[in-house]
Amino acid sequence: MLIQKIIACGVFVLVLIPCHAQGGDEDQLALAAVLVDKTQRTEMFAALAESFMDAYFERYDNPGAENPAAENPLRKIFQEEVILGKEELRLMLAEIFAAHFSENELRQIVIFFNSPAGAAWLEKRPLLETESEQVGLEWGQLLMQRVLNRFEAQTGEKF
Q1: pTM for this prediction
Q2: Number of folded domains that form the chain
Q3: Residue 40: left if φ>0, alpha if ψ -120 to 50, beta else—which one?
Q4: Do residues 110 and 143 share a domain?
Q5: Tell me: the pLDDT tens digits for 66-123?
Q6: How far is the C-alpha of 71 from the C-alpha of 102, rounded, in Å?
Q7: Cα separation of 76 and 70, whole Å?
Q8: Cα–Cα distance measured from residue 67 to residue 58, given in angstroms and rounded to the nearest whole number
Q9: 3-state secondary structure of 62
């Protein structure tokens, strides 16, 4: 636990000192970090990384174990590294947010996410994204069919 705190402090210093030296505003970066937390970006990327690693994890699962995944040495190492790297990722993402939004904009966005409407948006966002992606795929198929139908009607040629 002490090592994790030392690493987190080191990352924090490495990220904030260059930002401050370049004229970056600590309040702006702090607000950006709150926004990263509110939007759960760190957790999203950790989950994405884990899904990419699943094929490798399966190789080291112990099928005879009571909980094969929990006893997997590769999965254990991955989980430890995620814990150690989350603060690093959080600060990297905060720098991106701080680069694209002013301090005032970040403050207003955080206020929105702290409101009932913002909390509802955050809660429903994963479902909205999933449903939106499905609609986008369906629309793309319909669009392609209409394009091909019109192409055939205009040229007489089947695609």
Answers
A1: 0.65
A2: 2
A3: left
A4: no
A5: 776 677 888 889 989 999 999 999 999 999 999 999 999 999 999 999 999 999 999 9
A6: 46
A7: 7
A8: 13
A9: coil
* Same domain (yes/no): 87, 159: no
Same domain membership, residue 84 and residue 124? no
Are residues 92 and 35 located together in one domain of the fold? yes
How many helices (DSSP H) and strands (DSSP E) are in the chain? 6, 0
Question: What is the Cα gyration radius of the chain?
Answer: 23
Range of the domain at 135: 116-159
As a residue count, the chain comes to 159
First and final C-alpha spacing in the chain? 62
Integer angstrom CA distances of residue 80 from 1, 4, 90, 93, 100? 11, 10, 16, 20, 31
* Structure token pair of residue 28: 């702006």
How many angstroms separate the CA atoms of 143 and 146, rounded? 5
Based on the fold, state whether residues 13 and 82 are members of the same structural domain.
yes
